[in-house]
Amino acid sequence: MARLSGMNLDPDDVRLMPIRLRRELLASGYDDAAILRAVRSGQFARARRGAYVNAAPFAALDERSQHAVRARAAAKQAKTEVVISHTSAIALYPEAVPTWGLDLRNLHLTRRDGKSGRKEAGVQQHRGRLVEGDVVRIGDVDVTSPVRALLEVTTMARVEVGLVLASCLLHRKLVTMEQVVQRYAGAMDHWPQTLTTDLVLRLADGRIESVGEGRVFHLCFAQALPMPCPQYEVSDDSGSVVARLDFAWPEYGVWVEFDGRIKYQELLREGESVTDVVLREKRRQEMIEELTGWRCIRLTWADLASPERVAARIRAAFARAAA
């Protein structure tokens, strides 16, 4: 099975921790009483029923990583050949691919035998025709490829979630829009919720660099605002590019900067404090305003909880700029 460039995990990635099934432990000399003692003593933890991992490292994992381990366990326990798919595939992708907005409560596997899937014990088995290029190898398991997994997710997640994921995969160059459209057109008939897929493919933009930016872009669509230009470049009088704006409406003279939780930490230079970064960003904003004459709207995660209010702010800025 092929390994896609940019998809390989470090062999020491915690999501690839060893998993021992009950039958393997029995074959190695354990009995059920010994397994139970190991669980109670904190040596083992149940990744899921009948699948065990070392307790301490598993307990330290976040929701995404625990889901990935449990998905590997479910694939190992399956009585037929399966591929980890849908949201479970995303959980095994490199950390740069977000799981924001995805429902990680249930595990998702796609059967290779073409038979109807079933749902039991927190595992949804899907029936789906896998074609060449649909499967990649990550660690010790087969996983649906980024193109396939993206399309799978759009059939079960909200448009906003699909847009965030699609834009990230495009930005990371793990998929191209041509690949996604061709796969969608080629063999995705009879899939549910494809209206969401259509919207996601229409809206996704590889210039969007983060979850927060993806949510702002979706907010503009959902609130019937004019769609902004992502990563708009601002040049000085000599023609040199001096800044890139998260989003801009040049025709309205307004731009948006999204201040995520980690933005200022990412902008830290050696020896700087967060205050230094904030002051530098203020000077940057003043420079952009002097060059363009445009108005800036800064948004945070908290703002995204009130999309109507954000839309009203943006429309008010349009009106002020026009005046």
Describe the protein's architecture and organization.
This protein has 323 residues and is of the alpha+beta class. 42% of the residues lie in helices and 19% in strands. The protein contains 13 helices and 13 strands. The chain has helices at residues 22-27, 32-40, 55-59, 63-77, 86-92, 146-154, 159-171, 177-187, 194-203, 211-222, 263-266, 274-292, 307-322; strands spanning 20-21, 44-48, 51-54, 82-84, 107-111, 119-120, 123-127, 135-138, 141-144, 229-235, 241-249, 254-258, 295-299. The strands form 4 sheets. It has a 4-stranded mixed sheet with strand order 4-5-7-6. Strands 10-11-12-13 form a 4-stranded mixed sheet. Helix 6 runs antiparallel to helix 7 and helix 6 crosses helix 8. It is elongated and about 80 Å long. The mean pLDDT is 91.
